[in-house]
């Protein structure tokens, strides 16, 4: 019996093991939009992989 996923929520927590490095980290707003570009790239790769999986399942 197939399962349909209507919504997928992924949460992640990143811990910095080095407290001194925390001072050098800039918030995403101060990075000049670089974080948005990285996020868009990750999302597009995820979408591509999901579409590949769906296509592979249809071929079976």
SSE order, as H and E?
H
What is the makeup of the main sheet? none
C-alpha-based Rg, rounded: 18 Å
The low-pLDDT segments are none
Question: Can you characterise this structure?
Answer:
The protein is mainly α and 60 residues long. The chain contains 1 helix and no strands. It has one helix at 34-59. The chain is elongated, with a radius of gyration of 18 Å. The mean pLDDT is 76.
Which secondary structure elements does this structure contain, and how are they paired or packed?
Layout: H1 34-59
Pfam families: DUF5908
InterPro entries: DUF5908
Biased composition (Polar residues): 14-23
Question: Which labels suit this protein?
Answer:
60 residues; mainly alpha; 0% strand; DUF5908
Task: Quickly describe the structure.
By secondary structure, this protein is mostly helical.
């Amino acid at each position: 019996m197939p399962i349909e996923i209507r919504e997928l929520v992924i949460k992640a927590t990143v811990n910095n093991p080095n407290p001194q490095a925390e001072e050098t980290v800039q918030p995403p707003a101060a990075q000049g939009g670089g974080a948005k570009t990285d996020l868009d790239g990750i999302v597009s790769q995820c979408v591509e992989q999901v579409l590949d999986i769906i296509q592979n399942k249809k071929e079976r």
